[in-house]
Amino acid sequence: MISLLYAMDRNRLIGKNNQLPWHLPQDLAYFKRVTMGHTIVMGRKTFDSIGKPLPGRENIIITRDKHFTSNGCKIIHSIDELLELSRNKMDEEIFVIGGAEIFKEILPYSDRLYVTNIYHEFEGDTYFPSIDENEWKMISKEPGIKDDKNPYDFDFVVYEKIIK
């Protein structure tokens, strides 16, 4: 199963200068809780923004650079390799965590979306691609708790692809 995990604002914004345009500790804790013990897949720029492999997870980086290496990470070079990996891990949920280009390419093959909706508008340069809402069914929605450290209204929503 291939799942996408991302946070976005009202305008589908997901990034600014290869960083998150907001700081929501609850979202970071949610990300850790959902992905811990699983395989996470990210583009090289997303990996660069994180700066290191995330502990407790198998880290896979997709890059066109055939010479790229990173200790503690597996390197693949195409969406086809990711799909093959998914077929080899049929009983596992694989989380794609960014960036926008990889989200766009893998979205048609994805089974589940984990979305943190942030009800605020930010400035940035990277957006999540539009989805056909008729292809997805909401299976859970959990409100985030707005407080001093999490200053925006937000919620955690999970969608599953509707098999047609």
From TrEMBL:
UniProt keywords, alphabetically: NADP, One-carbon metabolism, Oxidoreductase
Gene Ontology BP, a term: dihydrofolate metabolic process
InterPro entries membership: DHFR, DHFR-like_dom_sf, DHFR_CS, DHFR_dom
Membrane spanning stretches: none
GO molecular function, one term: dihydrofolate reductase activity
Domain of life according to the entry: Bacteria
A GO CC term attached to the entry: cytosol
Pathway in which this enzyme or protein is active: Cofactor biosynthesis; tetrahydrofolate biosynthesis; 5,6,7,8-tetrahydrofolate from 7,8-dihydrofolate: step 1/1
The EC number(s) this enzyme carries: 1.5.1.3
SUPFAM superfamilies to which the protein is assigned, alphabetical: Dihydrofolate reductase-like
Reactions catalysed, as given in the entry: (6S)-5,6,7,8-tetrahydrofolate + NADP(+) = 7,8-dihydrofolate + NADPH + H(+)
Family membership noted in the UniProt record: Belongs to the dihydrofolate reductase family.
General function of this protein: Key enzyme in folate metabolism. Catalyzes an essential reaction for de novo glycine and purine synthesis, and for DNA precursor synthesis.
Official protein name in the record: Dihydrofolate reductase
